[in-house]
Specification:
Pfam families: DDE_Tnp_ISL3. It comes from Methylobacterium brachiatum. Residues 7-145 form the Transposase IS204/IS1001/IS1096/IS1165 DDE domain. This protein has 152 residues and is mainly alpha-helical. The chain contains nine helices and no strands.
Amino acid sequence: MVGKWATRRRRAEQAKIERLQRVPSARTLARWLTTGRDRLTRAETLTVAPVEGSVPALVEAREMVSAFQTMVRPMAPDRLEGWLTRAGTGLVASFARGVGQDKPAVLAAITLPWSNGQTEGQITKLKLVKRQMYGRGKIDLLQARLIGLTPP
């Protein structure tokens, strides 16, 4: 019984390794690089390891992204200055400059419990509807499409 289980497991691992022959997309690879190592599958880890080995700057960038996430999620605004200093060079420097330019908003996002996510979602929906209507977006027609009212 154990022998059959071990054989099935070995074959499954070999199939996963064979699937690694496909090159992942840049978006997939970026997601794997920014995901914690404990959350990646064995196949994903085997794909990420040679990439990080050949480009050491990616390891530093991953560490900076992880540091930013650990600053934002537990709401630790006191770490922002140090992070901006460390992130000023390297692959995340452009992102760090943007965060530095909008520092009051970033501090507010870290410290305050409010979010504008609901508003942004409604604006995105409005823009989608306007695009679908090919510029025929007068207020009465938009109300009918978004709110469900019948036009007068």
